[in-house]
Amino acid sequence: MDWKSLAVAAAAFTVISQVVYTLGAFIDMPYYTDPANAGLWSSLMMPGNGAPGMEYFVTAILASFFTGFIYASAYVAVKKVFREKSYVSTGAKFGLFLFSVSFVTGFIMMQLMFSIPLGLQLSWLVQGLIVSVTGGIAIAKFA
Fold this sequence. Notes:
- The protein is mainly α and 143 residues long.
- It has one domain.
- The chain is 78% helix and 0% strand.
- It has five helices and no strands.
- It has helices at residues 3-27, 29-33, 54-82, 87-113, 118-142.
- The protein is globular, with a radius of gyration of 16 Å.
């Protein structure tokens, strides 16, 4: 395994996920600031009124990097299954696989266990699709 390539792929995934989820947070802000949903958020994410603190952003970036590193490692192990003519189509197929395994199953489980508004869950699902496919393409390019 080429650790440098995995780290670059993980960094690319991190940038993509942070941009998509930050833009998504602006779109979804009414859900986050709705007092009816106040009990849903961790104290790290919503320590009080206003934006999360720096600790939240550092934790989110680290979580994205480690997720990207795990995904890139998995891609290296199974890339022959997804091999196409270009890294774009290979990565997109891998990203759709990641999406179906993680976000679709997570969406179903959230419906069963948590009282998160459906509109917010659907937004997260769309954001997850964008991150998975574009992140998969980046992973295929760099890993």
